[in-house]
Design brief:
There is one protein chain. This protein has 212 residues and is α+β, with helices and mostly antiparallel strands. The protein has two domains: 69 residues, Arc Repressor Mutant, subunit A (Orthogonal Bundle); 104 residues, Arc Repressor Mutant, subunit A. 58% of the residues lie in helices and 13% in strands. The strands form two sheets. The protein has a three-stranded antiparallel β-sheet. A three-stranded antiparallel β-sheet has the order 4-6-5. α5 packs across α7 and α5 packs antiparallel against α9. The longest helix has 18 residues. It is elongated.
């Protein structure tokens, strides 16, 4: 589909679905019309057909109209499974990239993803997604510049995680990096089914058995 050329009805449904998938906010109908080049009637028909497809197929997603736009959202009946998945993801230890990104946010907040990339030299989107899932950072607004990029700041969970009463208690960056390394080591230890103390006790028992 070239720019400005109306999409066929089946393609229109596919484009709408993709736009809702990648859109951070509910997709405004006006923007969908502008992108697809279709008519308002064909767009509304495509929306209804997509809704019917999701409902009839017993899928885990549905189309919701909110705040004057459209978004893909999960069905309420699968919420228990999503909560279980969220808990599993929460237990994963933070990668080095996530810890470095967290340090940048902590000391430069509020800060945008492009600004983080300028500092670290790599795309921070994956690390930011992980930190948002872990509730260590939050979206705190939009910067008043062209494109209005999202601003990221730390959360109350961040303070609790690192034993801080407020951001004024943040230590020097060098000391904080050591704190991050210690936190990473603690999280790595949690990945094992047996706690370090229990593992040491088991080793001692094994040594005793060999002596016998």
């Amino acid at each position: 589909m070239s720019e400005g050329t109306p999409a066929g009805q089946q393609q229109l449904k596919a484009v709408l679905e993709a736009l809702m998938f990648i859109s951070e906010d509910p997709l405004p109908l006006a923007e969908a019309l502008q992108v697809t080049g279709g008519t308002e009637e064909s767009l509304r028909q495509a929306i209804e057909e997509l809704r019917a497809d999701y409902d009839a197929g017993g899928r885990g997603l549905r189309i919701e109209q909110v705040a004057g736009g459209l978004r893909l959202t999960t069905r309420p009946e699968i919420a228990p499974f999503l909560h279980k998945f969220s808990r599993l993801r929460h237990r994963r230890r933070l990668s080095g990239a996530a810890l470095e990104t967290l340090a940048v946010v902590a000391y430069r907040q509020p800060i945008t993803a492009p600004e983080i990339q300028d500092i670290r030299g790599v795309n921070p989107e994956g690390a930011l997604k992980t930190l948002l899932e872990r509730r260590l950072v939050r979206i705190s607004g939009r910067k008043k510049v062209v494109g209005r990029p999202l601003l990221y700041s730390t959360t109350r969970e961040f303070l609790v995680h690192f034993g801080l009463d407020n951001l004024d208690e943040l230590p020097a960056i060098e000391e904080f990096e050591k704190i991050l390394e210690a936190a990473a080591a603690r999280e790595a230890a949690r990945e094992f089914d047996t706690a370090p103390e229990e593992a040491a006790a088991q080793d001692a028992m094994a040594d005793g058995g060999e002596e016998e």
